[in-house]
Amino acid sequence: MSIWSRISDALSALTSGESLATVFERLRTPPERSVAFTIAVIALSAKMAKADGQVSRSEVAAFREVFHIAPEDEAGAARVFNLARQDVAGFEDYAARIAAMFRGDQAVLCDLMEGLFHIALADGTYHPKEDAFLTRVAEIFDLSGTRFRTLRTRYAPDADPDPYAILGVDPDTPLPDIRRAWRALVRDSHPDRMVARGLPEEAVKMSEKRLIAVNRAWEEISASRAT
């Protein structure tokens, strides 16, 4: 059964009177946690699309890069997206429910934020309202300022491409400590680790771009320290 079929099964409960909060509550543990993660990205993407007032083709293409959608599953994915767009609940309510579901698991919430950044920047424009949206979502997720700056540095076009920020360390951090931070990020970006955190296999492709940025940052710092 594809993840989209499992999502459809989960959402069918909404038509029988269950609330979205109840559905999320039932999806807290693996393997259904990957369903919850996917619904969360779709729901917040839909709300973010309303932030800048439009959904571009490039944003849709970016979503397809994060989640492989077979032709037979397109209707189910569209249903989730439209359900979230039409829901009277605001994005803060969605974010709060997601934060409660993944409370204590900052790695998963960072994965989710990374997917949102990827989709937001797909059209080559980072709208101020998208920036405000993502900043507020990070606050609701209770992500540390360092974690959010690391993500923003890698994605936002106006961010200073600081390799130290990408690795989440200060410029005066000793090189051995920076190496440990780099290795930890590489381990956390391994596909097996991401699947173990409950991400659907369709979303693991995000780790490829993360690894490129992380390794490039380490190479830049280590080279500068060698001179």
Structural class: mainly alpha
Silhouette: elongated
**Helix count, per DSSP?**
13
The gyration radius over C-alpha positions equals 18 Å
Q: Segments where pLDDT lies below 50 for 5+ residues?
A: none
In round numbers, the mean pLDDT is 76
DSSP E strands, number: 0
Biggest pleated-sheet summary: none
> Beta fraction of the residues?
under 5%
Give the proportion of residues in helices: 55-70%
Number of self-contained structural domains:
1
Report on this model:
The chain is mainly α. It is 68% helix and 0% strand. The protein has one domain. The model has no long low-confidence stretch (mean pLDDT 76).
List the topology elements.
Blueprint: H1 3-12, H2 20-26, H3 33-51, H4 57-66, H5 74-86, H6 91-101, H7 106-120, H8 128-140, H9 145-155, H10 163-167, H11 175-188, H12 191-196, H13 206-226
Q: Which key phrases capture this entry?
A:
227 residues; 13 helices
Question: In short, what is this structure?
Answer:
The chain is mostly helical. The protein contains 13 helices and no strands. It has one domain.
